[in-house]
């Protein structure tokens, strides 16, 4: 083989490698759907699609990354604020699935618990400080609640999971609304501990006796972490499940930009702390990204339940596909 041929092959090899690199799709953001997105990426690649690299860095980090255009798509469980939208003109929110944020606990000898929104708020406000508090005991007759001190766990990073959780608590507790408020990052009353990402909060709940934190339901199930049933707006105590989070979304009328919270559902069988999770993408996204997102909104929806996430209701799915069709002209 002569030097000219060798050089030509080397150039072709470099071009091929460059082509593979260019075909890779990058995304970053919410840890809430991280399990789902990473499994979708595996399925998509196995089906012959582009490689997708998704990093769960928190919704706030995802918004910053897509705003700076350092990734092909961002992901968030809380819609971007008006101020954030100003920094990302034209960005689209595409709903991908529905999940539940659950109040997870670590109480020795207790695996089932019922809580109201007001009680959850009072725990984080430190008005309720032990697991045998009369307000908790009244909701759980027959459950042996120990006098263990409650250790509140929150997110250390900017998080859409926090946005969903605080949105709910503000709806059910005026004291929480005025004292803490709603957002992806809030000043939680002290004392308390904080973890980075869903994994960080889950780890702290699991290893801390008396801990009480909020994490995504699918992650709690996968890691065998106990979580409470929550009273919804109809007065029913409902545990997060594929059925109950789907019910929470059925009666919601989403605006044209899909930016809406669905907490404190009025559906009798709906779970109170449910939420959509969105992919954030610009209208000029490259064709490979559009193709992947179309797969997520069609084939991917069929496998969402396999990973304990609820697929979009059909009307929302069709609207999301119509919005996606406008990407790239």
Q: What would you note in describing this structure?
A:
This protein is of the alpha/beta class and 329 residues long. The protein has two domains: 25-98 and 276-325, D-Maltodextrin-Binding Protein, domain 2, CATH 3.40.190; 100-248, D-Maltodextrin-Binding Protein, domain 2 (3-Layer(aba) Sandwich), CATH 3.40.190.10. It has helices spanning 3-23, 34-46, 59-67, 82-86, 117-124, 134-139, 160-172, 174-179, 197-207, 217-222, 242-250, 287-297, 299-303, 314-325; strands at 25-29, 52-56, 73-76, 92-105, 114-115, 151-155, 193-195, 211-216, 229-231, 237-238, 274-281. α2 links the parallel β1 (25-29) and β2. α12 packs antiparallel against α14. The N and C termini lie far apart (47 Å). The relative contact order is 0.18. The model is unreliable at 1-22 (pLDDT under 50). Residues 1-23 form the signal peptide. Keywords: Phosphate transport, Signal, Transport. InterPro entries: ABC_phos-bd_PstS (IPR005673), PBP_domain (IPR024370), Phosphate-bind_PstS (IPR050962). Residues 21-297 form the PBP domain.
